[in-house]
Amino acid sequence: MDLNTFWFILIVILFIGFFFLEGFDYGVGILLPFVGRNEKERSVVISSIGPFWDANEVWLLTAGGAIFAAFPNWYATMFSAFYLALVVMLVALILRGVAFEFRNREENETWRKFWDWAIFGGSLVPALLWGVAIANVLAGIKIDAKKQYIGTFFDLLTPYTLLGGLAFVALFALHGGIFLTLKTEGEILERAYKFTWYAYVPAVILVAGFVIAGYFATDIFKGLGINPGVPAVGAAAALLASGYFVKIRRSGWGFIMTGLTIVLATLAMFQGLYPRVLISNIDPKNSLTVYNASSSEYTLGVMSWVAISFVPIMLLYQAWNYWVFRKRVSIKSHGHL
To answer: Name one GO molecular function term (predicted).
Structure first.
């Protein structure tokens, strides 16, 4: 395996970790107004992700840094194409982060409701935009012979990419709902089960629609016929199984199944993309690949030693964090935030 492929795989792993962890994080924020009926209940819902949300975002920062250092041409073209969407996403994430910190600074009910809706919007908008962005990466964007994006913001909004955005929102809401059933008690737990089930059917329909549309809007399944490959089939089976485990209230297995859905679906998408990292829908020759978008071999070699040294530390820290805060939260114990 050459270093270009090694770094592509490392970036895929970082995105898998990000979508798995931040997926339930966004999902809890999306379900906040529905599961939390009053101030105390919403505090419990927020406390369920309080110790985790900022550490989860480290995966995105690391993935972005890895793309910048290993594939600078990919980073430059991607950010020039998605800059407006990324600004909107950044504003939403900042508002969400501020909401976590400011919400409990005042006892005023209006104050807290404002920040609760900020958490909802700051979770919904990034989830939607990630789906739109990934769909654009798979379908291709307007990249010319100079490897530059020549389209507009509105060129990124097509029926297929918007479907991708809705599919991400529904899948993350399902993932977050199951996480809430693992972390809450009493009436909040019962309501979390109810809205998790409500999220399940839309998630199955939208994800299935996104995959079927992918046969027509992208070439990632090209050569596979009606069989999209083991990761995609595994993701579909895991998504269907998650509904069964929610129905019989085996939340641990349900969470593993939605996690597998996200892991395998992300793997399938990048598998269909490789060796390309950004597809040109003007001319395939203009597409960016792991070879024409990469840094020098010397740079990749130095970065590989850095990654091998520090990524295990990041994994150990996060595992310790989840172990320490593994207990359920309730109205009596929600004092984290």
So the answer is: metal ion binding
